[in-house]
Recover the amino acids of this structure.
């Protein structure tokens, strides 16, 4: 198909463009292997389900940040605002409305989407620095609001007394975290597939265009603001769902969920894993959680020192090399086409 | 001949400085029109007023007799006014195929599509555009790794893919090495007659080989406007340029 039409044929040449345009969204075997490995942990690592549940939720949270940072180019230091909105919503729904996890998840998604849409108006203005400050400010406002509204949120004591109903009316949340992990992993998987679809649509392509060069994006007729608003809202929804999972599987929401370190951690996770290819958040979440687990096993008091060192090393020297092979295989999928033609 | 793009007493002041001084300019349908002038003549400001990057202090911009003075830049593109940039403004992480597909897709008002991929019809148009601008051999490469000449061609291709009525070319051959220059000049000269072209250029060889009509801008105002042959012979224009050359030397 590639060989018969090369360069000078006129009219109906075999569409090289169709090939290139299709290449990016095609599933690579590494991706299939990745997800098979992820799912196999349900059976292979039964003793680690609590930790893996944490990883899956952090991965979803990082995925939400990747959608705006990695694809639309919006820097945020306040993504925890939506994590918190989702968590408190899910907790309150379980406590006062209905104990079914999916009901809580749906309401949390709706509320965090609304919060995302409203705050997106603030984030569109200005440059990266403005965005960092505005998102940080919004997260701080949410923190203080949750702190003050202790009649609703439990304030500094946290939202207690959440009792979740069984998943699908069948599976109770057990102490070993098996139900919780399957629930979180399934949610992550489904939302990952949605995100993967989304970034390969014309809409997703327009976000990458905006990220790469807003000036040119405007010059080919892309309206920046509405596109970025929608991207930001989708990301907020993802973060809200991650928060809901956290609240439901822990059956508790503490004020800590809105803390600044949550927003910083998730940025760190994404930087460790790499932005703009969707797997970065998941890989980063795994590395981050394991590192945290291992290091705090050695030195419980100084683990932040080591994680800081890890970050510096990752960013300055190692990450490109560490992430080079999965990224080349997963994201650099246009390459085989290019080689085939030359 | 009917007018594709027109400015009426267009003016831009920055504080006390008048960057564009009541410019009334007509670009005919299908025109090959060049805008020239010494450095600091206000060409860039004028382009920014046309494309909507800057709001004018006074005056109007008409595209196909429609007042677009208050339209946003992206809306003007959709109405048929596209441009290239003097300094490449490209999507460096994408391939030329993807970049062109995005431009076509936006032109067709399908930028919001969430339930489809880029379709076959877009792919075949991408092939045509790539062919026209000699990008077929690099269609799958990362834009950021392309040679400068190819990047300049992609600049043209992206603007062309918007299917404009009026195309503003801001120094399309600037900085292109001699070997790759011909591709660009060919691409520019083979643009279809349905597109009116306004060429903003320093390179006089390019201007006189391309333009049928030339507007000379000096100090923000129209200094001369006429057929290329008249402008070439105009002693006042020569003085402006010789004067500049003398200043540079």
């Amino acid at each position: 198909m590639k060989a018969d039409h090369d360069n000078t044929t006129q009219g109906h040449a075999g569409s090289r463009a169709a090939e290139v345009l299709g290449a990016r969204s095609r599933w690579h075997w590494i991706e299939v292997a990745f997800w098979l490995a992820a799912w196999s942990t349900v059976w292979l690592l039964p003793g680690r389900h609590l930790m893996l549940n944490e990883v899956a939720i952090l991965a979803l949270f990082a995925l939400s940040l990747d959608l705006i940072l990695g694809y639309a180019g919006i820097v945020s230091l306040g993504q925890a605002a939506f994590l918190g909105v989702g968590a408190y919503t899910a907790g309150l729904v379980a406590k006062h409305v209905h104990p079914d996890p999916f009901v809580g998840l749906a309401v949390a998604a709706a509320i965090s989407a609304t919060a995302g849409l409203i705050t997106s108006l603030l984030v569109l203005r200005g440059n990266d620095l403005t965005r960092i400050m505005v998102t940080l400010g919004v997260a701080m406002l949410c923190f203080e609001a949750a702190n003050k509204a202790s009649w609703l949120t439990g304030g500094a004591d946290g939202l207690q007394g959440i009792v979740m109903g069984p998943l699908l009316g069948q599976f109770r949340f057990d102490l070993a975290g098996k139900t919780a992990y399957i629930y979180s992993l399934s949610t992550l998987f489904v939302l990952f597939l949605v995100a993967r679809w989304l970034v390969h649509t014309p809409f997703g392509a327009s976000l990458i265009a905006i990220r790469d060069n807003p000036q040119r994006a405007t010059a080919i007729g892309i309206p920046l603001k509405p596109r970025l608003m929608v991207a930001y809202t989708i990301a907020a929804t993802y973060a809200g769902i991650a928060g809901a999972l956290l609240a439901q599987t822990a059956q508790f929401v503490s004020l800590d969920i809105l803390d600044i370190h949550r927003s910083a951690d998730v940025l760190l996770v994404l930087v460790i894993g790499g932005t703009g290819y969707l797997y970065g958040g998941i890989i980063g979440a795994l590395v981050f959680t394991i590192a945290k687990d291992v290091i705090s096993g050695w030195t419980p008091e100084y683990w932040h020192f080591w994680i800081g060192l890890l970050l510096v090393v990752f960013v300055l020297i190692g990450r490109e090399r560490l992430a080079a092979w999965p990224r080349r295989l997963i994201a650099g999928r246009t390459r085989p086409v290019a080689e085939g033609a030359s | 001949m009917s007018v594709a793009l027109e400015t009426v007493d267009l003016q831009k002041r920055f504080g006390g400085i008048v960057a564009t001084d009541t410019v009334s300019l007509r670009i005919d349908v299908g025109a090959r029109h060049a805008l020239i002038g010494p450095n600091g003549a206000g060409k860039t400001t004028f382009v920014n007023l046309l494309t909507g990057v800057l709001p004018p202090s006074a005056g109007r911009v008409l595209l196909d007799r429609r007042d677009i003075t208050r339209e946003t830049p992206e809306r003007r593109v959709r109405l048929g006014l596209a441009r290239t940039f003097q300094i490449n403004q490209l999507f460096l992480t994408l391939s030329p195929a993807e970049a062109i597909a995005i431009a076509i897709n936006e032109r067709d008002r399908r930028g919001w599509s969430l339930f489809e991929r880029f379709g076959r019809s877009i792919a075949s148009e991408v092939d045509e555009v790539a062919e026209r601008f000699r990008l077929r051999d690099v269609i799958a490469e990362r834009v950021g790794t392309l040679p400068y000449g190819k990047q300049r061609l992609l600049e043209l291709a992206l603007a062309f893919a918007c299917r404009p009525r009026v195309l503003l070319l801001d120094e399309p051959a600037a900085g292109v090495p001699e070997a790759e220059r011909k591709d660009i000049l060919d691409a520019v000269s083979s643009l279809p007659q349905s597109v009116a072209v306004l060429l903003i250029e320093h390179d006089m060889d390019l201007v006189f080989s391309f333009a049928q009509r030339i507007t000379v801008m000096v100090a923000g105002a129209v200094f001369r406007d006429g057929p290329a042959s008249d402008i070439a012979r105009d002693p006042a224009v020569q003085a402006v340029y010789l004067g500049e050359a003398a200043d540079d030397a």
About this structure: Chain A touches chain B at residues 7, 10, 12-13, 15-25, 198, 200-203, 205-206, 208-209, 212-213, 215-224, 227, 276, 334, 337-338, 341-342 (CB under 8 Å). Residues 68 and 231 of chain A are 6 Å apart (CA to CA). DSSP finds 15 helices and no strands in chain A.
